[in-house]
Specification:
The chain is mainly alpha-helical. It is 55% helix and 10% strand. The strands form two sheets. A three-stranded parallel sheet has the order 1-2-3. Helix 1 crosses helix 3 (42-54), helix 4 packs antiparallel against helix 5 and helix 5 packs across helix 6 (98-109). The radius of gyration is 18 Å and the shape is elongated.
C-alpha cells in the first residue's frame, strides 16, 4: 500500500496543473487496478482542508463537500474513518477549524475526556477544555534547550 501526500490530493482536487493531475489520476488508477488502495492519514486531511480554505479560497461548505467526495473516492483508504466522520460532523455543525475538531475526535476515540487548550473557540466545541489558572504552574515548563 502507498500513502498519498497533501500535494497529490490538492492537485487532484483543484486540477491547477492538468498534466500533474492526470499523472495523479493515472497513479491512483494503477494502484486500484492492481487491487491496492492508497492510504490518507489524518495529517494529510488536515493539510488539504487548510490549503483549500487558506490558499484556494474554498468556503467552509466547499471544503466539507470536498471532504465528503474524498471519503467516497475509489482507491483511497482513510485513517480511522469513524474519527474523521465525527470531526466532519462537528465541523459542519459548529464551524471553526477542521484540525481542532479532528484533534478532539481523535482524543475522544483514545478515551480522553477533553483536550486542554488555550484556543477559546475550540474550547466551546465540547471536545476541548480551556486552560484555567488552576491548571498552570504545578509542573514547571519544558525547556527546549534540553
Amino acid at each position: 500500500m502507498l500513502a498519498v501526500d497533501t500535494n497529490v490530493l490538492v492537485c487532484l482536487i483543484t486540477n491547477d496543473d492538468p498534466k500533474q493531475a492526470l499523472r495523479v489520476q493515472m497513479a491512483l488508477d494503477t494502484e486500484l487496478d492492481a487491487g491496492r488502495e492508497c492510504m490518507v492519514g489524518h495529517i494529510v486531511v488536515c493539510e488539504v482542508m487548510w490549503v483549500l480554505k487558506g490558499l484556494y479560497g474554498y468556503s467552509l461548505a466547499q471544503c466539507q463537500a470536498t471532504l465528503a467526495a474524498l471519503l467516497a473516492f475509489p482507491g483511497l483508504r482513510f485513517e480511522a474513518v469513524p474519527v474523521l466522520l465525527s470531526a466532519a460532523k462537528a465541523w459542519q455543525n459548529q464551524g471553526g477549524d477542521f484540525a481542532d475538531h479532528l484533534i478532539g475526535a481523535q482524543m475522544q476515540s483514545l478515551g480522553c475526556e477533553a483536550v486542554l487548550s488555550f484556543d477559546k473557540r475550540a474550547s466551546k466545541s465540547g471536545t476541548h477544555r480551556a486552560v484555567e489558572v488552576k491548571d498552570l504552574g504545578r509542573r514547571g515548563s519544558i525547556d527546549p534547550a534540553l
